Amino acid sequence: MNPVILSQVSASGEKISIGDAAVTAIFGYCVVFAGLFILMCVVTGVGAYFKSKNQKAADQEKAVLENIAKKVEDNPLTIVPAEAKKAPGSAGKIKLHSVPDKEAAMIMAIVADAMQKPINELHFISIKEVED
Q1: What is the C-alpha separation between 8 and 83, in angstroms, rounded?
Q2: What is the DSSP track for 3-49?
Q3: Residue 48 and which of 22, 78, 85, 129 are 20 to 30 A apart at CA?
Q4: Cα 48 to Cα 24, 54, 55, 83, distances in angstroms
Q5: Where are the domains of the chain?
Q6: SS3 content of the chain, % helix, strand, coil (to 5)
């Protein structure tokens, strides 16, 4: 057999045995995989940090909206502050309490007309039928 095939050449130019080459290769693979593992941990940690940050912001927004919805249910004529507004053109979610969709749409149109505002600038939270 050809001795060049059975042995490797090191970086310094000298021949090393198959066993030394295998140890060097395994050590190299271990270093690469350790680096990848550390990188994976860093990326996962940063992702978890930003996910928890977004979750806290969403929880705060939900608490504010629930507080406003509670005030509106107690007094339907409550003016909703600007912080409860959604993006332009978004109506958000509306809770309908024993009011059909068609009547709710009519009420929203009447309120928008009475306030002389476009309906997409208004944010309706809840519509409830009041019986005398």
Answers
A1: 70
A2: HHHHSEE-TTS-EE-HHHHHHHHHHHHHHHHHHHHHHHHHHHHHHHH
A3: 85
A4: 36, 10, 10, 27
A5: 1-79, 85-132
A6: 60, 10, 30
Give pLDDT, residue 82: 56
Residues 123, 108: Cα–Cα separation, whole Å: 10
Cα angle 66, 68, 73 (rounded to 5 degrees) comes to 90
With a CB cutoff of 8 Å and minimum separation 6, the contacts of 109 are: 119
Structure tokens at 28: 């190299």
Long-range contacts of 61-67 (CB under 8 A, 24+ apart): 65/125
Which pLDDT value is given to residue 119?
80
DSSP string covering 37-76: HHHHHHHHHHHHHHHHHHHHHHHHHHHHHHHHHHHHHH-T
CA-closest candidate to residue 65, choices 88, 84, 89: 84
d(CA 63, CA 20): 64
The 3-state DSSP class for residue 122 equals coil
Q: Is the pTM of this model over 0.90?
A: no
